[in-house]
Amino acid sequence: KKEDIKVKTEVKVFENKHEAKVEKANADLAMKKAKWAQNLQMGDVKAKKVVALREAELQKGVEVMNALTQTEKLKAKFLTKASIE
């Protein structure tokens, strides 16, 4: 009878230790998944910022070219007007 209780106790201790290991592994996996999701989200945010920055640079270039074109048109207009007068 004592031997039976001892074996059952050892089995229960083993089961508890095994269950604790499984729970720890599951918790570690959940933490890793959360970290991966966070890294993925950060990558998306960074990529969107890079795209927005590039779009702003291109828009600035377009605006500079438009301003230069307008300046040249005005110069030509005033030059023509000055030539006529």
Automatic annotation (TrEMBL):
Keyword DNA repair: no
GO CC annotations on file: caveola
Keyword rRNA processing part of the UniProt annotation: no
Keywords recorded for this protein, A-Z: Cell membrane, Membrane
Membrane topology, as annotated: Lipid-anchor
Compartments, record wording: Cell membrane; Membrane, Caveola
Organism superkingdom: Eukaryota
Family, similarity comment: Belongs to the band 7/mec-2 family. Flotillin subfamily.
Record-given protein name: Flotillin-like
Record organism: Tanacetum cinerariifolium
